[in-house]
C-alpha cells in the first residue's frame, strides 16, 4: 500500500521537513526491551510535567500566566513525533526554551546530569511506542534527512 508522508510545518522548536520521496521509508521496528526500560525513566523524571500517560499539561497549547508554553504531550496528540532522534536527545540532554516563551529560563529542564545516554534513548523509544505507525514512519524520515537547515536548533 502506498503511504503518503504528510508534510507539516515545524513546531515551536523547529523541525527539518523531510524531503518528499517516492519511496516510503519503512515503518521502523521498536526494541521491546528498550521501551520497557524507558517507561520507568519517564515516570520518574518526566511524568510530573508531561503527564502520567504523556498526555501533556491541560491547555498545553495556551501560554501560561507568565507567557510560557506548558509541557506538551509526547503521545500522538503532541508534536514530539515531528522531531528527529538527534533533536530529541539534544532537548532532553540540554533542556529547551521555546522561542515564543516570555521568560528567559529553560522551560524544559536539562537532564544531562541525571540520565545516561542509554536512559535518554530508552525514554525516546518509550515515546515511539505511543505513536501511530504513520507518525513513527514520519519521524524515521526525519532521522534519515541528512542535515537540518541552519536555525532549526532549539
Ligand atoms: C519541570 C517540568 C518538566 C519536566 C520534569 C520535563 N519536561 Fe520536557 N518540557 C517541559 C516544557 C515546559 C516543555 C516545553 C518547552 C517550551 O516549549 O518552551 C518541554 C518540552 C519537551 C520536549 C520537546 C517536545 C516537543 O514536542 O517539542 C521534549 C522532547 C521533552 N520535553 C522531553 C522530556 C523528557 C524526556 C523528560 C523527562 C526526562 C521531561 N521532558 C521532563 C517541561 C518539563
Question: Key terms for this structure?
Answer:
154 residues; mainly alpha; Cytochrome Bc1 Complex, Chain D, domain 2; 5 helices; globular; disordered N terminus; binds heme C
Explained architecture:
By secondary structure, the chain is mostly helical. The chain has a single domain, classed as Cytochrome Bc1 Complex, Chain D, domain 2 (Orthogonal Bundle), CATH 1.10.760. It contains five helices and no strands. Helix 1 packs across helix 4 and helix 3 packs across helix 4. The longest helix is centred in the first third of the chain and has 14 residues. The chain is globular, with a radius of gyration of 15 Å. The N and C termini lie far apart (35 Å). The structure holds heme C.
Count of distinct strands: 0
Count of DSSP-assigned helices: 5
CATH architecture call: Orthogonal Bundle
Overall tally of domains: 1
Q: What summary fits the major beta sheet? A: none
Shape: globular
The average pLDDT score comes to 86
List SSEs in N-to-C order.
HHHHH
Integer-rounded radius of gyration: 15 Å
The percentage helix is 25-40%
Distance between the termini: 35 Å
- pLDDT < 50 stretches: 1-10
Beta strand %: under 5%
In CATH's first tier, which class applies? Mainly Alpha
CATH fold-level topology: Cytochrome Bc1 Complex, Chain D, domain 2
Element layout with pairings:
Layout: H1 32-45, H2 47-50, H3 85-94, H4 117-129, H5 133-143
Bound molecules: heme C.
The site of heme C has 28 residues, from helix 2 and helix 3.
Compact summary:
With 154 residues, this protein is mainly α.
Amino acid at each position: 500500500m502506498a503511504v503518503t508522508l504528510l508534510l507539516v510545518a515545524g513546531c515551536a522548536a523547529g523541525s527539518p521537513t523531510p524531503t518528499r520521496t517516492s519511496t516510503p521509508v519503512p515503518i521502523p521496528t521498536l526494541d521491546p526491551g528498550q521501551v520497557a526500560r524507558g517507561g520507568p525513566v519517564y515516570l520518574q523524571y518526566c511524568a510530573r510535567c508531561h503527564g502520567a500517560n504523556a498526555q501533556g499539561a491541560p491547555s498545553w497549547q495556551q501560554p501560561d500566566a507568565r507567557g510560557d508554553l506548558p509541557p506538551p504531550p509526547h503521545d500522538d496528540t503532541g508534536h514530539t513525533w515531528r522531531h528527529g532522534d538527534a533533536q530529541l536527545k539534544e532537548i532532553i540532554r540540554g533542556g529547551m526554551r521555546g522561542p515564543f516563551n516570555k521568560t528567559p529560563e529553560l522551560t524544559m529542564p536539562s537532564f544531562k546530569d541525571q540520565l545516561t545516554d542509554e536512559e535518554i534513548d530508552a525514554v525516546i523509544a518509550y515515546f515511539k511506542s505511543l505513536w501511530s505507525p504513520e507518525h513513527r514512519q514520519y519521524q524515521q524520515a526525519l532521522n534519515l534527512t541528512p542535515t537540518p537547515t541552519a536555525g532549526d536548533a532549539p
